[in-house]
Amino acid sequence: MWPVDCSNRTRKETRLRMDNFPTRGPGARYLGDGRCQFEVWAPYVDSLGIWLQHNGESHVPMARDPDGYYRLMVPDVAPGTRYRYLLNGNKSRPDPASRFQPEGVHGPSEVVDPSFPWTDQAWINPPLAEYVFYELHAGAFSAEGTLAAIIPRLPYLKDLGVTAIELMPVAQFPGSRNWGYDGVFPFAVQNSYGGPQALKQFANAAHGEGLAVVLDVVYNHLGPEGNYLRDFAPYFTDRYKTPWGDALNFDGPDSDEVRRFFIENALYWIAEFHVDALRLDAIHAIVDSSARPFVQELTRAAREQARALNRLVYVIAESDLNDVRVVRPETDGGSGCGGLGCDALWSDNFHHSLHGMLTGESDGYYRDFGTVANLATAYSEGFVYSGQYSPFRRRRYGNSAHGTPGERFVVCIQNHDQVGNRAQGERLSVLLEFESLKLAAGAMVLSPYLPLLFMGEEYGETAPFLYFTSHSDPAIVDAVRRGRREEFAAFSWKGDVPDPQEENTFLRSRLTPEHSRNESQQRLSDFYRELFRLRKETPALSHLAMERCQALPLDEQTLFVRRGYGTSEVALLLNFSGRRTEFAVPLQPGAWTKVLDSSDPRWSGPGGMPAGLSVSSDECRIGLNPRSIVAYARVAA
After folding, report:
1. How many CB atoms lie within 10 A of CB 400?
2. pLDDT tens digits for 473-501?
3. CA-to-CA distance for 531 and 522, rounded, in angstroms?
4. Dihedral Cα 518, 522, 527, 533, nearest 10 deg
5. Concatenated DSSP letters for 425-462?
6. CA distance 268 to 276
7. I need a surface site. Which of 277, 376, 609, 626 has the fewest CB within 10 A?
8. What is the helix, strand, coil percentage profile of the chain, to 5?
9. Is the pTM value of this prediction over 0.90?
10. Which residues belong to the active site?
């Protein structure tokens, strides 16, 4: 075995050589013909070598460059070779940028052949305004709990009206069951899901069905077990803390290389796995006081990568700050000021407002929401809180999103957080009766934003989605159990918190088999399908023009929403009360045709709404069925 040492050069020579190297980047890069380039940033380490397990065992020393990088090209290394780094001659560690951990977070890393027989050359990522997200957990979506097991269900999701599959994080985590936010190897696809080849097969199949692939990535923290990055370099800082552990070092000494590591990770998913969009988890927990924020730099790099590949790629952020600057562009030519440039943002305010109206819950953060006025603001402004005082937060909160296009916001009535972070993991199908489920679906899908469904929502899945883990460290297990109990102190939810570590907690969270679904569930699924058809085919609903969206409370339980585009106009009437009510509705004169009625007998409702309205003045009286949504359309002459 003959290693090629490229590190015994000056700093400038090394940088030039690596910049021109087609496989520059962290980890083990298999180049073909048995050649593999290893690169690891390890300034904390005085000596480093590679332990290789292939046709026996061997140890290959590496030399360090002035920037703390160890790089080496090694011949006679085949895909499937397992390896570790040996730090200072006595500490064996997996590769921080491992592409595969076949034996879990504590085992050796494996060299992976990046080649794949892609057949998605004709795939074109649709405009973001056409996205209909379907969020799923690869382990709980099927009995098999693998990425491969999702593929047979893709035609069903396509037929439903979904256009983008959003995967919860797939980076390697401890054990075989976890939400994915405890990942510790950002480049390695979870072994129990099938590893890197399985993710490529999934993406290829999704594109073949005309579905985009969105990947949830976590750059605000790493999980506690198997977190070996701190042995190599200053990836973490003690100047900040996150709710989940040590903060990553994005703005302190040596942070340039930390930022590079995670930006390389984002580009890896885009280039090697053909991912169409990245969802950045909880960017409010990325503490970064630098003049050029990490999220802005990552978004710019993703956009440049997409241009180089002649593709469209989106970056979608989750933030708890109601800060519209997340989706504002960089307006200064890229000097680092201006907005972060993300393409879209999760809007929790819409969920909280709608959830409060539907359930009447007012504990925890729901105390800030739950009025029809809040929901009207959520429909027309994007945020409910745009600088007002928040009783729950006990401070002013947010800034104004007025005038921001609707496709900048992703909304939902359920997602992994809002279901899984309830003590009992109850879905809306358990909290609400059938008529309210249809009302909730219509309110979300016909909003002027990008709709997101959580797996099973479309048919009213009743299995809970609980928080589950499979840690092997008893101290971490105890800490997680204690943390879950403390997290629910602000809520009055009943019952004991299920033990995250128990396997049954995970098994209870799996979707029920398709053959066991009842008639009401099938009817709800058909209703979602009709909602997506109506949204797609009606210009007033498919064009997310906020300047033509008006939301007006009619009383404390009823909302009127008017949406328009060109000559197409749609009026939505939402009744959250449990009684039939009659209202004077501000409709423009003309002929209005009913295009949707959740109370129609077709959807197992009581019926009774008129099929058409002839309005001769600026107002007409309409009776609304309890817990219903009705839509009337008008085409101006």
Report:
1. 14
2. 999 998 888 877 777 666 666 778 899 99
3. 14
4. 170
5. ---HHHHS-HHHHHHHHHHHHTSSSEEEEETTGGGT--
6. 12
7. 626
8. 30, 25, 45
9. yes
10. 281, 318
